[in-house]
Amino acid sequence: MSPMTRRQLLAWAAAGGATALLSGCSTPGTVSPNTGPTIAPAAAGERITLTYWAWLKDLQRVADVWNADHPNVQVEAVWIPGGNDGGYQKLYSALAAGGGPDLAQVEMRTLPEFLLVNGLVDLRRYGADEVASRYNETLWNQVSYVDGVYGIPQDSGPMALYYRPDLLDRVGAKPPATWDEWFQVAGAVREADMYLDCFALDDASWFAAMATQAGASWFRVDGDRWIVDMTDDATLETARFFDRAIDEGVMTTSYSQFSPAWFAAAAKDSIASLAGASWGDALLQGVSGAEGKWRVAPLPRWGSEGYGSTFQGGSTAAVLANSAHPREALEFAVWMTTSDAGIDAMIEHSGIGWSPNDAYIGARRQQPSEFFGGQNYNEEVFVPAAKEQNNEWQWWPLTQQTFNILADGFRAKASGGTLVDAVVQGQRDVITAFRNKGLRIEAAS
User: So which residues are the signal peptide here (predicted)?
Assistant: First the structure.
């Protein structure tokens, strides 16, 4: 991945100005926290309190583990709605008013939008590079794609194939190792009145994950502009594959993963597998009568050019621009996401996704699972999956708007459209959206 500088990032906004960068949020006059001298640590013996805004449940119980051993640096967790459900708007409003928390939960894909409004502290100025080796390489790349480090990886979602061995046995099949094999198994499963998986027309993030696994990298930097390539071979081949799967009836679009209709179908033994993220293991336990029936296998591969896995989801603990104690905030974020005590507390109390620390996945996740029939699936499947990622993928401004544009196009599939056409038109619409925000962008030649 080619790192971009902060000068490049801000240059894309030159035509429209900072106040027009993001729809629905306004931070006029926000001054970058990354110019001038760094902020000194708290004085010896001084007692400070850090605030952390996040939508993780029971985060205060995690903070209390830290607080017990750090009497002079206390952490107060404040719950906010999920990012796109109002949490980000609260953060933008707080920044605009010159306030806000010390730390906030920000999805990796949303970091560029906070950067464009000078919302984040460059943690490299406070020693973040010294802890880079503790983190998964792919995740660290996704928080340091500019000339600094703008968040600490908090969790992620490497993907695998959840499957029902008893249902596959009905058609004499094993978990498919490649997507071509997946198509063959899907056809056999459909003949037995089941589906191997579903395709959500209203959520493009799953499709993006599949394209990423195939080798796609939709955005890159060239000088002072974005280059977009959503119509590369990897993406179009992925779109053609799922167009065919839907058209031939081996994949349903009637419901999305973990929707009420999906849970009902899974409980009736109508769903034989699911390509999903590591955090899906907890959701699967909501399927009635599913105890002991599911197993986990590696995600099918896209031939020799693809990767062993991909990812869906992932958050950071970011230090916001108006924090008076960025050094201490960084120290807490690193403890929470790399120490045994922090990771175990995050899993127990907050149900986080996959640990960002390759060296420690959490004590609970090192044990065989009764729900998954005694399989030690985390160490067998997700540990290698987290290391078999596409490191070239880079998030961009307007990520959620991009996904919304794609989803609008995907919905036309229900009335005769194609995913391929949706991707091609989606790139055109994304280019328009960027330019409407004053961002410089060109399609790859």
Answer: 1-20
| Domain covering 44-155+311-377, topology | D-Maltodextrin-Binding Protein; domain 2 (3.40.190)
CA-CA distance, 318 to 107, in Å (whole number)? 9
Q: Where are the domains of the chain?
A: 44-155+311-377, 158-306+393-443
CA pair distance 160, 181, nearest whole angstrom: 15
**CATH annotation of 158-306+393-443:** 3.40.190.10
φ and ψ of 195, to 5 deg: -120, 145
- Do domains 44-155+311-377 and 158-306+393-443 share one topology? The answer is yes
CA distance 82 to 55: 5
- Average the pLDDT over each of 7-11, 183-187, 369-373, 396-400 and give the range with the smallest value: 7-11
In whole angstroms, what is the distance from residue 51 CA to residue 41 CA? 16
Provide the pLDDT for residue 221.
86
Is the separation of the CB atoms in 161 and 296 below 8 Å? Answer: yes
Helices and strands per DSSP (H, E), number in the chain: 17, 10
Residue 31, pLDDT score = 81
Question: pLDDT at residue 1 above 80?
Answer: no
In 3-state terms the chain splits into helix, strand, coil percentages (rounded to 5) of 40, 15, 40
Show Cβ contacts of residue 69 under 8 Å, excluding neighbours closer than 6 positions.
Answer: none
CA proximity to 333, closest of 355, 321, 316 = 316
Q: Which residues, 6 or more positions from 376, have their beta carbon under 8 angstroms from its beta carbon?
A: 366, 367, 368, 369
Q: Across the strands, what pairs with 220?
A: 227
How much is the CA Rg of the chain, to the nearest whole Å?
Answer: 22
Residue keyed to tokens 């004053």: 438
Report whether 216 contacts 305 (CB < 8 A): no
Q: Which two tokens stand for residue 154?
A: 């908090």
Max CA separation in the chain (angstroms)? 71
Q: Count CA atoms within 13 Å of residue 292 on its CB side.
A: 1
Q: Where are the alpha helices (DSSP H) in 97-178?
A: 111-116, 137-143, 165-169
Condensed to tens digits (0 to 9), the pLDDT of residues 61-78 reads: 999 999 999 999 999 999
| Residue pLDDT, tens place only, 333-346 | 999 999 999 999 99
